[in-house]
Design a protein that fits this description.
Layout (H helix, E strand, L loop, with lengths): L3 E6 L6 H12 L2 E4 H11 L2 H10 L7 H15 L5 E5 L5 H13 L6 E6 L2 H9 L1 E3 L6 E3 L26 H15 L1 H7 L4 E5 L4 H13 L2
Parallel strand pairs: 1-3, 1-4, 2-3, 4-7
Antiparallel strand pairs: 5-6
Bound molecules: BIS(adenosine)-5'-pentaphosphate (AP5).
Length: about 220
């Protein structure tokens, strides 16, 4: 069966990662989250991590050439192991989108759908501020809608949950500005194709998942 390629597009904290993980696990897709890969490298202290940290901590985008090399490397390593790929938080610029098209064309592949999570700014800010992450297993919580069972401890690892450094209010507003300037133009870019689908990201996690499942299975 030919592999499928999906892009989850949307503002910071729209719920892309939550849904990408759910869909990837349920339907056997490989999730490529450039944010998670970069944070892993930051934690490990790799050369890439050192470079990435200076951008992430200020809410800026890591340069396109670094991101495209990273994605190409991941695609090469994981091709043929699942039903396809979900790009979560990538591409984030027109240059990344064009670079991705070239990478896919090299293997006669193409994007199947671009799913845009439409969420208003107030909700985005609330979701980011209230996000907490387990430093060990990386499970994502939300103090408002998905709190841990006890205090601020991970339900699985029982270690204290942390706030991402870029979820502090001043960095969130920088990330939002970068999103509007660099990533929002991708909405029009992909609207020109017949691959663009918009979903209401304001709904609950469960309701968003129902809409997404229809999109993924409806092809
Ligand atoms: P990245 O990690 O990709 O951050 P992002 O795009 O800003 O997305 P988030 O991870 O913040 O949010 P999400 O949409 O996945 O939401 P989530 O599901 O967690 O990137 C971080 C940084 O890395 C960037 O700023 C940049 O520096 C760098 N970077 C990454 N990719 C790059 C690229 N391609 N190019 C250049 N630089 C790059 O949900 C958020 C919260 O809301 C959680 O608490 C969750 O529990 C909750 N939630 C989720 N869905 C719902 C719902 N439906 N209702 C209520 N709460 C919900």
């Amino acid at each position: 069966m030919k592999e499928k390629f999906y892009i989850f597009l949307g503002p910071p904290g729209a719920g892309k990662g939550t849904q990408a993980k759910y869909i990837a696990d349920k339907f056997n897709y490989h999730q490529i989250s450039t944010g998670d890969i970069l944070r892993y490298n930051v934690d490990q202290g790799t050369e890439l991590g050192k470079i990435a940290h200076s951008y992430i901590s200020e809410g800026k985008l890591v340069p396109d050439d670094i991101i495209l090399d990273l994605v190409k490397d991941y695609l090469g390593r994981f091709r043929g192991q699942a039903n396809g790929f979900i790009f979560d938080g990538f591409p984030r610029t027109i240059d990344q989108a064009e670079g991705l098209n070239e990478i896919l064309q090299e293997n006669q592949n193409k994007i199947d759908k671009v799913i845009y999570f439409n969420v208003d700014e107030q909700t985005i800010i609330a979701r980011n501020i209230n996000r907490r992450v387990c430093p060990k297993c990386k499970k994502v919580y939300n103090l408002l809608v998905k709190p841990p069972e006890h205090d601020l401890l991970c339900d699985i690892c029982q270690v204290e949950l942390l706030q991402r450094e870029d979820d502090k209010p001043d960095v969130i507003s920088d990330r939002l500005n970068v999103y509007k300037a660099k990533t929002e133009p991708l909405i029009d870019f992909y609207k020109q194709t017949d691959k663009f689908v918009e979903i209401n990201g304001q709904l609950s996690v469960e309701q968003v998942a129902i809409h997404l499942e229809k999109e993924i299975n409806g092809i």
